[in-house]
Write a structure and sequence with these properties.
CATH topology of the largest domain: Nucleotidyltransferase, domain 5
Low-confidence stretches: 167-175
Radius of gyration: 30 Å
Strand order of the largest sheet: 2-1-3-4-5-6
Largest sheet: 6 strands, mixed
Number of strands: 29
Bound molecules: S-adenosyl-L-homocysteine
Structural class: alpha/beta
Helix content: 25-40%
CATH architecture of the largest domain: 2-Layer Sandwich
Strand content: 25-35%
Distance between the termini: 56 Å
Length: about 575
Amino acid sequence: MIGLISATAAGAAARDRLAAAWPARTRVYDGPVGDAVRRAFGECEQLVCFLATGAVVRLVAPLLGDKASDPGVVCVDEGGRFAVSLVGGHGGGANELAGEVGELLGAEPVVTTATDAVGVAGLDTLGLPVEGAVAAVSRALLDGGSVALRTETPWPLPPLPLTEESAVGTEGTGGADGAYAVVRVTDRAVVPGEREVLLRPPSLVVGVGASRGAPADEVYGLVEECLREAGLSPASLAALATVDAKADEPGIVAAAGRLGVPLVTYGPSELAAVEVPNPSDAPLAAVGTPSVAEAAALAGGGELLVPKRKSRRADGQPAMATCAVVRRAARGRLAVVGLGPGARDLLTPRAKAELRRAAVLVGLDQYVDQIRDLLRPGTRILESGLGAEEERARTAVAEARAGRSVALIGSGDAGVYAMASPALAEASDDIDVVGVPGVTAALAAGAILGAPLGHDHVSISLSDLHTPWEVIERRVRAAAEADIVVTFYNPRSRGRDWQLPKALAVLAEHREPSTPVGVVRNASRADESSRLTTLAHLDPATVDMMTVVTVGNTATRRIAGRMVTPRGYRWQQEPR
Ligand code: SAH
């Protein structure tokens, strides 16, 4: 819950806009502001105060306890110009809230936490448990000191401005390789060095089996002991896994709760299909699979680190619990991101978020230039020139398969005549793939021309580099016969000049010479230009590779200088 406090009429107006936008998340605290701030501080996870920062500092100072548990506080000034993250930037989420409030009220978010202010991902905001010298290593990162990333357990991380990357074995620790500080990604139970931060990836899965009524202490104790003896950190535990029949077994449920991880369950036939080193008859009879602990741990794939073992009971009674430990393979993440036609405000917020999340960015150099300023320091940029499409696709997939988080970018929509298909044709199911749609050129051009796509429409690329011209011409003819609005991508280049006139001639066999044709060059870019002409008058020489050409159907009209294709024109013109 977000508590809202205001003192003046302007403050109350801004407060009401927030309350109206987030009815379920906010609560208005009325009355004298001192009292309101104190009540909200005690009752809410976050506060937005429409008050001077000085006033809020004085009011909350006596209430502050610990940055991990204090609410995040954001102040908005009287003029609604700034949303200041005052306290609880990370732990209380005030930095993020300042951004959200800023977006809603049109105010500039002000964030002073060093890592956020310079766009470096804070070590404590990576979504992974951290241990060790967080403050010292963060300072080194900010100061541009030499910080090495040592990846013992590969995991897709956001970018960190690190000086080197080295995969290490199980031995190395501390500021090795001459680096001042080290960020070490590991699931092993090691003690961090003096200038070392440990990031704990959720890489471990413990499979558990238990007889009915197994005590929670016995299950929990066994899991802990297994991890400890194998030298593994409980902070990297991602889940407990077992068979469906044990989904409600109180000892297992309680142990998962105490470990703070979810309980994942599988059907007996699924488990029976998993190859395990130590199958046995007892579980086969009881729950229908020769292995519970090992099979459940391995069901999601990975490497068996600790084979099945049983609990030891002090009272000498038979063991009631079994467990096995598996290290899951890191799943890399490939985001295929459309950047839109060019203008920054046509780049979606989701695309922006993915760009900032990726540690590796792959793309055509000119597209990289379009968004370079948005990237976080430390992002590894793999840019290449025109033509190297297949290679870019392969590189992006290979980086993701190595367990990294990768963004593959393309202009417009990355799935339209662009990188998504060659990349996904390469990709196997061992990586996660996320697509972020972008505004494709046909849509950007359509909005400039008017409403040319108001009825059925199709895009056709006139590039015959990868497609035989006969196929292209057949498609143009089909669109012509079906009276469909056509947008031509890749319409004309220096070496390809006869295709556009030919395509237009095919359309002209089925459409009037007066059919409107829109030509848009560099839609939404600084040198945007557009023209509305007709099939008879289009001069192909005015068209190049930065252009799309949209040809109307037989109902498309020029109205007040705009291109308009009516919806369902027959019944509109002749009402029955
Ligand atoms: N993925 C891109 C298309 C790549 S094919 C998209 O979804 O938009 C390249 C062709 O797209 C160019 O030859 C041109 O015809 C068209 N194009 C791309 N961006 C454009 C823009 N901003 N203005 C006009 N045409 C554009």
